[in-house]
Amino acid sequence: MDAYGHVNNVVFLRYLEEARIDFLFRPEKDFKQGSVVARHEIDYKRQLVHRHTPVDIELWVTQIRAASFTISYEVKDGDVVYVRASTVIVPFDFATQRPRRITAEEREFLEEYQDDDTEEAVAA
Predict the structure, then answer these.
(1) What is the 3-state secondary structure (H, E, C) of the chain?
(2) Is the N or C terminus of the chain more exposed, i.e. has fewer CB atoms within 10 Å?
(3) pLDDT band at 34, cuts 50/70/90?
(4) Of 2, 72, 19, the residue nearest 42 (C-alpha)
(5) 9-123 in CATH: which number?
(6) Taking a C-beta distance cutoff of 8 angstroms, is the pair 23, 124 a contact?
């Protein structure tokens, strides 16, 4: 919470990070070879005041390229949307300190959650 009594913008980034980690590092499917965030874009729609009840974060994949992918999010409570955001993620080889291509297994996983105008989203 910031001085105005609402959830601070940095906290929203943490919320998105937690949802993204839960999504990408599931025990049965994960990005074991590593990845890094290349870009965040956040549109704040409404202020979220401090409260003890959780908010929902829906996420889905909006773009898959050879060496990056984009995850989009909505932080919401029912029909009330507080934030719409997206993150560009680059698969990364930490041994060589260079970006890498998405593996076939990673692509297959991401395609399961790709938005093909069907509004399929993952509740996190």
Answers:
(1) CCCCCECCHHHHHHHHHHHHHHHHECCCCECCCCEEEEEEEEEECCCCECCCCCCEEEEEEEEECCCCEEEEEEEEECCEEEEEEEEEEEEEECCCCEECCCCHHHHHHHHCCECCCCCCCEEC
(2) N
(3) confident
(4) 72
(5) 3.10.129.10
(6) yes
- The tally of CA atoms less than 13 A away on the side-chain side of residue 118 is 11
Calculate the CA 54 to chain-centre distance.
17
How open is the CA angle 90-95-100, to the nearest 5 degrees?
30
**Residue with the two structure tokens 């509004």:** 119
User: Hey, where are the domains in the chain?
Assistant: 9-123
Q: Are 104 and 74 in contact (CB under 8 A)?
A: no
Q: How many CA atoms lie within 13 A of 33 on its CB side?
A: 16
